[in-house]
Request: fold
Amino acid sequence: MGKILVVGNWKMHLNASQASLLLHRLQERIPIYKDVEVVLSPSMLTLQPLSVQLDRRKFRLAAQNAYFVDEGPFTGGVSFAMLRELVHYVIIGHSERRRVFGEDLEMIKQKIGACVRNDITPILCVGETKHEREQGETKQVLHDQLLSGLANLTPSEVADMVIAYEPVWAISDGTNFTDHFIAKPQQVAEAVDYIRRYVRDVFNDKASREVRILYGGSVVPEIVQGFLDVPGVDGFLVGGASLNYHTFSAIVQASHSWQRGSEEEHA
Ligand code: PEP
Reply:
């Protein structure tokens, strides 16, 4: 049984000392787990200092973004090539990057290519807006995002990557989780099944089995076990709740307990 993957996306929060304090608290609370891989994705500014402080037995780092050209006259950019020694993962195509920063399918495809070329594992975010779901376009949207995002990859590159299903309507504003439209496990099951079938049809069975698929959208400790029961879900991309060390460590702990329970069941 593979490890559960839990990624904390700190978004554009925390200056260097706040980020360092949060990491310190997480390192105090989260033990070394063999069955849960915990990844932290702080702002670009704090990746370097946190990499020095990081207990690598417990955590890996992800960047929240990068530019697809390795080097050149791109003011304000940071390339995948610059990040390759620092991070294991880069989050690509987050809905906030698509919506706020205008990243289109073509740019996301280029970023996935640059990420893989630089030996970094992409976490490709896909998911429909509320309007698209209401119009019955969820599968079409997933299809288009997968078609372009995975276009230049080999089956083994797809097998090694991570896809995060994040319905845009379920992503929190960072403060209010309970009133939010958390996706239903059945909706997540349908989307994850669609993604795995797409990968199987376009690539192969092995890639479809091995690609890790996360759910993201208002994840809190209380929903962890129910969502891990959804077939094909390998973990979570956590936004707002990853900024609080109580809730984030509870999400990791609940993932570990679920994994232990399911190992006992299969023993
Ligand atoms: C995210 O940042 O990808 C996310 C899902 O945020 P939240 O958990 O706050 O909904």
User: Anything to note?
Assistant: Residues 9, 11, 94, 166, 171-172, 174, 216-219, 237-241 surround phosphoenolpyruvate (CB under 6 Å). Residues 159 and 207 are 4 Å apart (CA to CA). The longest strand covers residues 4-9. The chain has a mean pLDDT of 95.
